[in-house]
Protein backbone atom coordinates (compact mmCIF):
# COMPACT_ATOMS: atom_id res chain seq x y z
CA UNK A 1 0.00 0.00 0.00
CA UNK A 2 1.48 3.36 -0.97
CA UNK A 3 1.66 6.38 1.32
CA UNK A 4 -1.39 8.08 -0.20
CA UNK A 5 -3.51 4.98 0.36
CA UNK A 6 -2.33 4.80 3.97
CA UNK A 7 -3.23 8.45 4.54
CA UNK A 8 -6.69 7.97 3.01
CA UNK A 9 -7.30 4.81 5.04
CA UNK A 10 -6.23 6.58 8.24
CA UNK A 11 -8.42 9.56 7.39
CA UNK A 12 -11.44 7.35 6.77
CA UNK A 13 -10.84 5.43 9.99
CA UNK A 14 -10.51 8.70 11.92
CA UNK A 15 -13.67 10.08 10.38
CA UNK A 16 -15.56 6.91 11.22
CA UNK A 17 -14.31 6.91 14.80
CA UNK A 18 -15.12 10.60 15.22
CA UNK A 19 -18.59 10.17 13.76
CA UNK A 20 -19.27 7.14 15.95
CA UNK A 21 -18.16 8.96 19.10
CA UNK A 22 -20.14 12.05 18.17
CA UNK A 23 -23.25 10.01 17.59
CA UNK A 24 -22.82 7.98 20.76
CA UNK A 25 -22.51 11.09 22.92
CA UNK A 26 -25.30 13.01 21.17
CA UNK A 27 -28.37 13.70 23.29
CA UNK A 28 -30.79 11.68 21.14
CA UNK A 29 -32.87 8.60 21.57
CA UNK A 30 -31.13 5.27 21.25
CA UNK A 31 -32.96 4.26 18.08
CA UNK A 32 -31.99 7.52 16.37
CA UNK A 33 -28.40 7.09 17.47
CA UNK A 34 -28.28 3.52 16.18
CA UNK A 35 -29.77 4.60 12.85
CA UNK A 36 -27.18 7.38 12.46
CA UNK A 37 -24.38 5.02 13.44
CA UNK A 38 -25.64 2.42 10.97
CA UNK A 39 -25.77 5.06 8.19
CA UNK A 40 -22.24 6.22 9.03
CA UNK A 41 -20.93 2.67 8.89
CA UNK A 42 -22.64 2.09 5.54
CA UNK A 43 -21.04 5.27 4.20
CA UNK A 44 -17.65 4.13 5.46
CA UNK A 45 -18.13 0.72 3.85
CA UNK A 46 -19.01 2.33 0.52
CA UNK A 47 -15.99 4.64 0.71
CA UNK A 48 -13.72 1.67 1.43
CA UNK A 49 -15.20 -0.27 -1.49
CA UNK A 50 -14.58 2.67 -3.82
CA UNK A 51 -11.01 3.11 -2.61
CA UNK A 52 -10.36 -0.62 -2.96
CA UNK A 53 -11.71 -0.56 -6.52
CA UNK A 54 -9.40 2.36 -7.34
CA UNK A 55 -6.39 0.57 -5.91
CA UNK A 56 -7.25 -2.62 -7.82
CA UNK A 57 -7.47 -0.59 -11.01
CA UNK A 58 -4.03 0.89 -10.32
CA UNK A 59 -2.65 -2.59 -9.67
CA UNK A 60 -4.13 -3.89 -12.91
CA UNK A 61 -2.61 -0.98 -14.83
CA UNK A 62 0.76 -1.68 -13.22
CA UNK A 63 0.46 -5.39 -14.03
CA UNK A 64 -0.25 -4.60 -17.67
CA UNK A 65 2.80 -2.33 -17.86
CA UNK A 66 4.98 -5.06 -16.33
CA UNK A 67 3.62 -7.69 -18.74
CA UNK A 68 4.29 -5.45 -21.75
CA UNK A 69 7.82 -4.68 -20.51
CA UNK A 70 8.57 -8.35 -19.86
CA UNK A 71 7.29 -9.38 -23.30
CA UNK A 72 9.52 -6.75 -24.87
CA UNK A 73 12.52 -8.05 -22.92
CA UNK A 74 11.77 -11.65 -23.88
CA UNK A 75 11.41 -10.71 -27.54
CA UNK A 76 14.69 -8.79 -27.40
CA UNK A 77 16.38 -11.78 -25.76
CA UNK A 78 15.06 -14.09 -28.46
CA UNK A 79 16.36 -11.77 -31.16
CA UNK A 80 19.79 -11.62 -29.57
CA UNK A 81 19.88 -15.41 -29.19
CA UNK A 82 18.81 -15.95 -32.79
CA UNK A 83 21.44 -13.50 -34.05
CA UNK A 84 24.11 -15.22 -31.98
CA UNK A 85 23.11 -18.63 -33.34
CA UNK A 86 23.17 -17.32 -36.91
CA UNK A 87 26.66 -15.86 -36.41
CA UNK A 88 28.04 -19.14 -35.06
CA UNK A 89 26.29 -21.39 -37.55
Descriptive overview:
This protein is mainly α. It has one domain (3-88). It contains two helices and no strands. The protein has helices at residues 3-24, 30-88. Helix 1 runs antiparallel to helix 2 (30-88).
Strand content: under 5%
End-to-end span in angstroms?
Answer: 51 Å
- Biggest pleated-sheet summary: none
Please, how many domains? 1
Mean pLDDT over the full residue set: 84
* Radius of gyration, whole Å: 26 Å
- Count of DSSP strands: 0
Low-confidence stretches: none
The helix-and-strand class reads: mainly alpha
SSE ordering = HH
Task: Record keyword descriptors for this entry.
89 residues, mainly alpha, 2 helices, rod-shaped
Topology:
Blueprint: H1 3-24, H2 30-88
Question: Outline of this structure?
Answer:
The protein is an all-alpha fold. It has helices at 3-24, 30-88.
Amino acid sequence: MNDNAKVVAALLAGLAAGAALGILFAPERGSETRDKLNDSLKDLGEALKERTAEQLEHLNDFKEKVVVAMKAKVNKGQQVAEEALEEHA
